Amino acid sequence: MGEKAVILLSGGLDSCTCMAVACAAGYELYPISFDYHQRHDRELDCAKRIAEHYHAVEHLIIETNMNAVGGSALTDDAIAVPEGDAERTDIPVTYVPARNLIFLSYALGYAERVGAAHLYIGVNSVDYSGYPDCRPEFIAAFQAAADAATAAATERGRRIIVETPLQHLSKGAIVQLGTKLGAPYELTTSCYRGGAEACGVCDSCVLRLRGFAEAGRRDPIPYAAGVR
């Protein structure tokens, strides 16, 4: 039995790249995904296919009703998903309050249960949509909390390390990395609007398309007519 890694797997480009990175490192893969009543819930089908592609040991799917909290265009149908702005620096309405804090907490418990020493998350502070829970400061704070919160760390001396391999990469560099590692991007989705074809105009689509263009690659997923 080798070392184990838990990977936050949304079904998008970044989390798929994290799966590829963890696989290349030789870890046994334990992805975790979330049905948080997001409007783009087709990403869960993508996550399942990615997990199957990598022969994950176990794929845990957690249901947590974040639309009860509301306040985000991703969980509240009354808030429209805005068209993308690749240069955005403010916090957009697609921010889901405390989402990464909640997801990482579940993932930390999962990692402790399966005995994983590594916890991967695809946060990025170069090309991102202004989310505060994608910043290095947040990850450092969560790592400190994880070190104090688990029996693995406090009683057994086994820290669970939060791995952020994409933290300082541009979207183009992420695509290049994933392509080099054979990440199955054709199985992913990034569109916030959740259609069978990506809209091509929301924040996530704009950043994704820019990344593929920077990497000199063609995005293998389908887009609405007239996009690209």
What's the order of the H and E elements? EHEHEHEHHEHH
- Which class best fits the helix and strand makeup? alpha/beta
Number of strands: 5
**Residue-averaged pLDDT, rounded?**
92
Q: CATH homologous superfamily?
A: HUPs
Cross-sheet strand order for the largest sheet: 3-2-1-4-5
Envelope shape: globular
Distance between the termini: 45 Å
What can be said about this structure in brief?
The protein has 228 residues and is an alpha/beta fold. It is 36% helix and 10% strand. The protein has a single domain, classed as Rossmann fold.
Tell me what the structure shows:
The chain has a single domain, classed as Rossmann fold, CATH 3.40.50. It has 7 helices and 5 strands; from the N terminus they run E-H-E-H-E-H-E-H-H-E-H-H. The chain has helices spanning 13-24, 42-53, 99-114, 136-149, 151-154, 171-180, 203-215, and strands at 4-8, 28-35, 60-63, 118-120, 161-163. A 5-stranded parallel β-sheet has the order 3-2-1-4-5, sandwiched between helices. Helix 1 packs across helix 6 and helix 6 crosses helix 7. The chain is globular and about 55 Å long. The model has no long low-confidence stretch (mean pLDDT 92).
Topology:
Elements (H helix, E strand, L loop, with lengths): L3 E5 L4 H12 L3 E8 L6 H12 L6 E4 L35 H16 L3 E3 L15 H14 L1 H4 L6 E3 L7 H10 L22 H13 L13
EC number: 6.3.4.20
Enzyme class: ligase
Cofactor: Zn(2+)
Keywords, please?
single chain, 228 residues, alpha/beta, Rossmann fold, five-stranded parallel β-sheet, 7 helices, 36% helix, globular
